[in-house]
Design the sequence.
């Protein structure tokens, strides 16, 4: 359940940047290959934000799909897991997206 | 979490020095960022130093684009420099519960402590059982109880190091909380992650927990003395492990019988020899 620690970090970042202003909305990006479950973050968010300026804020989660580039043939393709095989057969790949864990922006009132 | 400033306390970790016994229960004594909660003397800059736009009535959108684990990663980098400065090799041992990490540590301490100074950080949610075993094996040990936390974080390790005070030119073995998921995400500033995996766990673990096996430099396949009693297929296991991480170095051993341990010791010793020149302090 590392999502609890991750959510603490999210609320910590937002609280610090909000400078005491109430936060209405928080947008985060979670890559599908990041081993972080969006639903678990949602579950933790309301609890962790209690008593902070983030309490009651909407949480928007952008899920970023996994993509990779083949180092052999240059093809870009979707990646369902951390490892994968290019349609050309090569397993020598570079992951391009899907590992993001970012606080994108927030709306303060 | 501190509701005043928003800094994370990562679930109230407790640090226990097994040599002296006292438990540091202060949840908020981070040396890395300057505030104390006794008098609430905050030094954070709480200003809005970020770019704003989209004025919509009373609402303001603040663009952050900040990595969620940035703070941990920054502290891990500081730990890495701290180790480098003292020529200390720090290895982060990760595994599921019951893989045999503590037994491997006991044996390693017993067999190498006369050649290399060794000290240990023990991470567990509760109890000092493992730390007591390590102390009996004959080396300094500090226990970090993470409480609700399922992994060690860089700030916990920094606090552990303040208490442990390992000597220069030495080896620090970090036994992380038994968990094949969460510790993979948190860099501690270690030189290498060593994933300990026993033959009683099933050969498909590398595919089920790819993050851990991908972040590790070394995989120890432990309890090989039990292979005659199991259906575990070593060849398939290694194929799965290398599918996830082609560079993973593997040592097959039994921490109980000692079979294969020499390869692990040779690797540890080579890490010490290959690190930068000896530091005199």
Sequence:
């Amino acid at each position: 359940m590392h999502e609890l620690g991750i959510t603490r970090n999210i609320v910590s970042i937002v609280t610090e940047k909000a400078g005491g202003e109430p936060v209405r909305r928080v947008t985060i990006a979670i890559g599908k290959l990041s081993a972080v479950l969006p639903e678990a973050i949602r579950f933790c968010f309301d609890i962790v934000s209690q008593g902070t300026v983030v309490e009651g804020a909407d949480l928007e989660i952008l899920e970023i799909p996994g993509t990779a580039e083949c180092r052999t043939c240059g093809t870009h393709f979707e990646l369902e897991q951390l490892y994968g095989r290019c349609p050309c057969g090569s397993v020598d790949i570079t992951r391009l997206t899907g590992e993001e864990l970012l606080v994108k922006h927030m709306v303060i009132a | 979490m501190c509701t005043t400033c928003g800094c994370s306390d990562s679930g109230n970790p407790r640090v226990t020095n097994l040599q002296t016994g006292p438990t540091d229960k202060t949840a908020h004594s981070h040396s890395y960022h300057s505030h104390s909660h006794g008098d609430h003397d905050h030094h954070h800059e709480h200003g809005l130093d970020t770019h704003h736009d989209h004025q919509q009535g009373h609402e303001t959108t603040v663009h952050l684009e900040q990595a969620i684990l940035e703070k941990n990663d920054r502290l891990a980098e500081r730990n890495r420099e701290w180790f480098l400065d003292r020529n200390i090799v720090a290895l982060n041992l990760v595994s599921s519960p019951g893989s045999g990490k503590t037994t491997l540590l006991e044996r390693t301490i017993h067999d190498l402590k006369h050649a290399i100074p060794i000290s240990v950080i023990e991470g567990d949610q509760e109890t000092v059982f493992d730390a007591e075993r390590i102390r009996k094996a004959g080396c300094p040990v500090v226990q970090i109880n993470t409480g609700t936390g399922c992994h060690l974080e860089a700030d916990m390790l920094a606090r552990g190091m303040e208490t442990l005070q390992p000597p220069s030119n030495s080896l620090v073995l970090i036994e992380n909380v038994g968990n094949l998921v969460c510790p993979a995400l948190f860099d501690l500033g270690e030189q290498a992650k060593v994933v300990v995996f026993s033959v009683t766990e099933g050969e498909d673990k590398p595919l089920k927990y790819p993050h851990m096996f991908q972040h590790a430099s070394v995989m120890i396949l432990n309890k090989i003395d039990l292979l005659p009693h199991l259906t575990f297929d070593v060849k398939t296991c290694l194929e799965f492990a290398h599918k996830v991480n082609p560079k993973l170095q593997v040592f097959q051993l039994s921490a109980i019988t000692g079979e294969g341990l020499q390869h692990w010791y040779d690797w540890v010793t080579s890490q010490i020899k290959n690190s930068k020149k000896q530091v005199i302090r």
User: Anything to note?
Assistant: The interface with chain A takes residues 1, 3, 5-8, 10-11, 44, 46-50, 58-72, 148-151, 153, 181-182, 184-186, 210-211, 214, 243-244, 246 of chain B (CB under 8 Å). Helices of chain B lie at 70-85, 101-112, 129-137, 154-164, 205-208, 210-215, 234-244, 261-274. The first strand of chain B starts at residue 14 and ends at 17. The radius of gyration of chain B is 21 Å.
